[in-house]
Structure prediction request, 533 residues.
Amino acid sequence: MRLWKRIAMRWFQFRDEVGGLIRGFQVLIVNLALIGKLRPVGLEPITVIVDSWREATILRLLWITQLLPRHKILVVRRACDLHLPIQSNFGGESLLIVTSRAFTKHYHLLASLRHQRRLVVL
Amino acid sequence: MKFIKKSARSGPKVSLILLDWSVRESFHLLHYLSKQDVDRDLFEVIIIEYYSRVSDAIRPFEDQVDSWLLLEMPEDCYYHKHLMYNAGIVAAQGDICVICDSDAMVKPGFIRSIITEFENHPNTVLHIDQFRNARKDLYPFCYPDFSEVTGRGCINNVGGKTRGVVDDKDPIHNRNYGACMCARRDDLIAIGGADEHIDYLGHICGPYDMTFRLVNSGHREIWHQTEFMYHTWHPGQDGEDNYLGPHDGRHMSTTALDALISGRTMPLEENESIKNLRLATDLAQGVEAFRIATTHFISWQKDNIRKGKQWVAGNSSRKIWHGFVVDQTADGFVAYPRFLEHPDFSKFQDQFEIHASTEVDLHERLDDSIPFRWRLVFPVVTLLTYVSRALGLTSLYLQRRWGRLTHEAYT
Prediction:
């Protein structure tokens, strides 16, 4: 393959991948904010499962600036990090919100959780 | 549709479905299937050709082929692998359908492993990963030894297993979902077979569409830990210059991922013959009556999916706008936040759903409904994501270069 074609392919790959990341993160922000509106303060906590420290940092910043409701963040980089949230006694009645990217990466662990816990995939 | 050959094998357990769309140069899998350590009557081989070509590459192994079907799609129609999967499922006589690469190598225990796995775990969908070798001197295929494929030039050998199988960070991208997928025929029919939606036209497709929907319907996905396929380099293996449907940037169909996320089990567009089998009507017709929707002949036409000189991705079934899911309905368009799909929140549907007659109107209404400070956040997030991702990829590239340099220095 010619060099320019390879460069173009890599660029499209980068653009599409980052575009998907951004769209997914927008969905998370908007949905979290709307869920926050629906849920009065003091109700069961929200736990958000994301797959990158970047997303976790931005979410914390948005919470500090009071754009998002209070929530706990779990960063799942590897399947073993999910050991805790998939335990039946984890977080009691907390609402688990998982990004679609984190869900699809570890769906073999999370798919069954959908029927057992209050799990929202965004 | 035309049969070159029709299976005379009675009661096979496994049906291997191999595809071609007038592109395959080699069907050497058939050579390795002739060396299996199980009774030959336990499996059948079905070849599905999308167009009308009678491939010369199959001729040397013709004795291994049980059914050979030409779908005779018009030459001006782009290829859709899912249509071929459905034809294979309808034609299959075996209890287990295996959709796999026809230009890969397998060891003599390949079929036995599949049968054993389904005997031990009946309610599963089984995948077998593939070792890939990038050496160009192995092309044209020269029947290398298995150790040669896993040795020098192998891009995913990690201690005798494929990188995808041992990976726990991003298995969905590191495993080869298209290499080999095995599922019970009845289970495939129960989920409506492969999805014939236009999103899967061309290179962005695969049996994982069915895997995800089988998982949603309660099946367990298993990746074989000891059995693998072995693939050597050939030109055009990455789908270069192919039409690409909507994907996540790493050639994984976003429509299939969306099915996984939403828990959908049925296809967006079901094949009529599969539907007849699912509803147990028209059973007597058999594969001769495999039906191809006439609308496909128009919507899959190359001219309709090519604008100017470029292939333009088909309209995704679902779009995202400002974090809202945008769906097309009979009355127009509807946008809603994704959490409404959860049963606990569905009662808030009226509160959050936004309707409009056109997509442009809907975007305007969405712009108005979203608070200004949120809209300010979006470009910041976009910038941060681009910068951090670019930095991440640069550091990964430098790490790899450094690793290569130090490796060369030591050796």
Summary: Chain B is about 35% helix and 20% strand.
